TrEMBL record:
Cross-referenced PANTHER family: HEAT-INDUCIBLE TRANSCRIPTION REPRESSOR HRCA (PTHR34824)
Protein name (record): Heat-inducible transcription repressor HrcA
Molecular function GO labels: DNA binding
A Pfam entry, by short name: WHD_HrcA
Record's function text: Negative regulator of class I heat shock genes (grpE-dnaK-dnaJ and groELS operons). Prevents heat-shock induction of these operons.
InterPro entries recorded: GAF-like_dom_sf, HrcA, HrcA_C, WH-like_DNA-bd_sf, WH_DNA-bd_sf, WHTH_HrcA_DNA-bd, WHTH_transcript_rep_HrcA_IDD
Winged helix-turn-helix transcription repressor HrcA DNA-binding domain boundaries: 15-77
Transmembrane helix recorded as keyword: no
């Protein structure tokens, strides 16, 4: 999940208790929650009038909304985000759910496809949502690659292999990487990837980095020998070339051309390094993630939430992902451990079969 935000400073203990109870009640019933309902539910004796005042304060904070003037309140997307990250208690999967998952996935004669099909079916049955299965990574030649920005700290890479297989992997992009930069990276990769795997693509980019580095060093060495430039302090910035006074350039058209070429090489070297980093990120991932409403650009139009977790092989390498798509009022406290446990079990079973 995302980094846990702290509850707003304006929320005292009573406001937190009202907020937590209201969200838990809403997630259970799907109905707006009124002050009278909360006054009967809260362990601390608080009047309905006091609760109404607290609910108004929470609404001003953007955590609650009211679908109708006379109705109770429901959590906003911001409120659900705060609840999931700051209030929801992380629990272990309950015994009934665990047994159901193990029973469906325990057959020893299942191949990889059967394991994933059964995992999707059991997730749908237990959560009453739509399951999402991202197949294990296949080192087949890549036909096409696309990067999709989901949020400032989350992106999706879509890989289409030569045999028609499609893989989707979630990753955290480098800070400041814009959607246009992702498109530019995808265009470059598509130009060099055809017939190569992701691992081979990384080797190609690495060789290009080395070639640029050697050409840069050779040009810089000539300028340094002529007294036109010198390298900056290597401990501070190994890729910074300081060009001395322009008087040195008046008698040397060659030096002027070399400096222009060096600028191009620096730019190209930086782009290639960013590209290599992006390739590395496509093969990494993290634990269970919860995307609520518009945080998930793929499903935001339907007002859905996505709970997703990667599964790993014996080397702790991400080989796929599994998740559940449902309404924003998912029972997150129950579904998060279900998705987490299913992903762990799928990873273990696929590792045993290989």
């Amino acid at each position: 999940m995302a980094d846990s935000p702290k509850p707003p400073l304006d929320m005292n203990d009573r406001a937190r208790a009202v907020f937590r109870t209201l969200v838990e009640t809403y997630l259970e019933t799907g109905e707006p929650v009124g002050s009278r309902t909360l006054s009967r539910t809260l362990t601390e004796g608080v009047s309905a009038a006091t609760i109404r005042n607290v609910m108004q304060d929470l609404e001003h904070l953007g955590l609650l909304g009211s679908p109708h003037v006379s109705a109770g309140r429901i959590p906003t997307q911001m409120g659900l985000r705060l609840f999931v990250d700051g209030f929801m208690e992380a629990k272990d999967i309950n015994g009934i759910d665990r047994s159901e998952i193990e029973r469906n996935l325990s057959a020893t004669d299942q191949d990889m496809g059967d394991v994933l099909d059964r995992a999707g079916s059991v997730l749908s049955g237990l959560t009453q949502g739509a399951s999402l299965i991202l197949s294990p990574n296949i080192e087949a030649p890549i036909k096409h690659i696309e990067f999709v920005s989901l949020s400032p700290d989350r992106a999706l890479v879509v890989l289409v292999t030569a045999d028609g297989h499609v893989e989707n992997r979630l990753f955290t992009p480098p800070a400041g990487l814009t959607p246009s930069a992702m498109r530019e990276a995808a265009n470059f990769l598509n130009a060099i990837l055809e017939g190569h795997t992701i691992s081979e693509a990384r080797s190609i980019v690495t060789r290009q980095i080395d070639a640029r580095r050697q050409e840069l060093d050779a040009l810089a060495a000539r300028l340094i020998e002529d007294g036109v430039a010198l390298w900056a302090d290597q401990s501070q910035d190994p890729d910074r070339l300081i060009v001395r006074g322009t008087s040195h350039l008046l008698d040397s058209t060659q030096a002027e051309e070399d400096i222009a070429r060096i600028r191009q090489l620096f730019d190209d070297l930086e782009r290639k390094r960013d590209l290599a980093h992006l390739l590395d990120l496509t093969e990494t991932g993290d634990g269970v993630r919860v995307f609520i409403g518009s945080e998930n650009k793929l499903f935001s139009l339907s007002g859905s939430s996505l709970v997703v977790s990667p599964y790993m092989n014996a080397d702790r390498k991400i080989i796929g992902a599994i998740g559940v798509i449902g309404p924003t009022r998912l029972n997150y406290g129950r579904i998060v451990p279900i998705v987490d446990y299913t992903a762990q079990l799928v990873g273990r079973l696929l590792t045993e079969r290989h």
